[in-house]
């Protein structure tokens, strides 16, 4: 950063706030280094409060064009203080001076964020519904829409008595399977993923949550290992999946945070986005019990395509409905085994 740029920023801040001390803090922060140079050294002055650290890092993230700069700063510093969000931190605690260890940890984690590492990987955890899950790159980070997918399964199965079984294709961190197991004590799940990293992370999260006894996880690829899956998995009452569905030609448009850190195999659905969805439906025709269901999270362009595919080439299924996400975009497909043709 040039002297002129730094001075211009300080003048703007001075006109806006008139706080000399804040100007000095920003000089220290900006002169410590840049994202390209790696981790930033903590400021020379040790007496910095959590409140000021949030503000300084939000400004620095913004300067380096990091997405959601304020939220990134808040999540990281809240995590260092032992809370989920800044709102959960006591106001007095925000005004207290950070300890040396806290300050060093904040600088270390925020410097990771400067590389555009997603916040979920930086703090190594994320909340999904009522669970806190361990996160590790390159395992796919669960999105809010997938919480809605879990809700669709629960709508249909919460009232069922007796034991039943489910299959998750592409378990990632285990978010879907573990949320369902937590809510449905009579459920057992067979989960699989093409990534060994994902399989290990799902098992780690299952053990941390005490749900491992009702979960079976396998390193299998639904595209290549259909026969093995059929030999290992008993008939199931439902199949649920948030498969890779992004069209290959759209991959380059994704954020740097996604392209640089998350497993592309968990994102890229091929030229039409159905590269993994087709094998899932083929597997479902053989594994689902009578009136068993398939729940899919898909691209907004997919519901009519999948509906037409089922109607024209898959008489073993009934396409029940498409559902929209909270943004009112078509996002979920629900199919049912056709008793007459299944």
TrEMBL record:
Q: Which NCBIfam families match?
A: hemK_fam
Tell me, what's a Pfam family for it? MTS
Origin superkingdom: Eukaryota
Which InterPro entries does this entry report, sorted A to Z?
DNA_methylase_N6_adenine_CS, HemK-like, N5-glutamine_MTase, PrmC_N, SAM-dependent_MTases_sf, Small_mtfrase_dom
- Family matches, as PROSITE patterns: N6_MTASE (PS00092)
Q: Which CDD domains does the protein's record reference? A: AdoMet_MTases
The gene designation is: hemk1
Methyltransferase small domain location, by residue? 165-253
Q: Does the keyword Oxidoreductase apply?
A: no
What organism is listed for this UniProt entry? Danio rerio (Zebrafish)
**EC numbers on record:** 2.1.1.297
Which segments constitute the Release factor glutamine methyltransferase N-terminal domain?
57-123
Offer an example of a GO molecular function term for this protein.
peptide chain release factor N(5)-glutamine methyltransferase activity
| Top class in the EC scheme | transferase
Q: What Gene Ontology terms for biological process does this UniProt record contain?
A: methylation; translational termination
Q: Which reaction does it catalyse?
A: L-glutaminyl-[peptide chain release factor] + S-adenosyl-L-methionine = N(5)-methyl-L-glutaminyl-[peptide chain release factor] + S-adenosyl-L-homocysteine + H(+)
| Alphabetically ordered keywords of this record | Methyltransferase, S-adenosyl-L-methionine, Transferase
Instruction: Supply the name of the protein.
Output: peptide chain release factor N(5)-glutamine methyltransferase
Q: Which SUPFAM superfamilies match?
A: S-adenosyl-L-methionine-dependent methyltransferases
């Amino acid at each position: 950063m040039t002297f002129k740029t730094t001075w211009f920023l300080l003048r703007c801040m001075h006109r806006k706030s008139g706080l000399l001390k804040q100007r000095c803090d920003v000089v220290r922060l900006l002169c410590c280094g840049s994202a390209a140079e790696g981790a930033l050294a903590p400021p020379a002055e040790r007496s910095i409060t959590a409140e000021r650290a949030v503000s300084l890092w939000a400004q620095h993230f913004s300067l380096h064009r990091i997405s959601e700069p304020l939220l990134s700063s808040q999540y990281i510093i809240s995590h260092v203080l032992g809370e989920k969000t800044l709102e959960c931190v006591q106001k007095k605690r925000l005004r207290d001076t950070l300890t040396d260890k806290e300050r060093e940890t904040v600088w270390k984690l925020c410097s990771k964020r400067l590389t555009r590492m997603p916040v979920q990987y930086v703090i190594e955890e994320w909340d999904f519904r009522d669970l806190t899950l361990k996160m590790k790159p390159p395992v796919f980070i669960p999105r809010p829409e997938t919480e809605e997918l879990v809700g669709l399964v629960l709508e249909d199965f919460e009232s069922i008595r007796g034991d039943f079984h489910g299959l998750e294709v592409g378990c990632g961190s285990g978010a879907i399977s573990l949320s369902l197991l937590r809510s449905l004590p009579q459920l057992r799940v067979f989960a699989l993923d093409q990534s060994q990293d994902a399989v290990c992370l799902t098992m780690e999260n299952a053990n941390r949550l005490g749900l491992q006894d009702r979960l079976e996880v396998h390193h299998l690829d639904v595209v290549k290992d259909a026969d093995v899956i059929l030999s290992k998995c008993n008939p199931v009452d439902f199949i649920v999946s948030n498969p890779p569905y992004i069209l290959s030609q759209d991959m380059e448009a994704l954020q740097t945070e996604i392209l640089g850190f998350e497993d592309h195999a968990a994102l890229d659905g091929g030229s039409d986005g159905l590269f993994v969805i087709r094998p899932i439906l083929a597997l479902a025709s053989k594994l689902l019990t009578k009136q068993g269901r398939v729940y899919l999270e898909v691209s907004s362009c997919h519901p009519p395509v999948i509906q037409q595919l089922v109607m024209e080439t898959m008489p073993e299924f009934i396409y029940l409905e498409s559902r929209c996400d909270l943004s009112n975009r078509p996002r979920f497909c629900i199919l049912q085994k056709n008793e007459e043709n299944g």
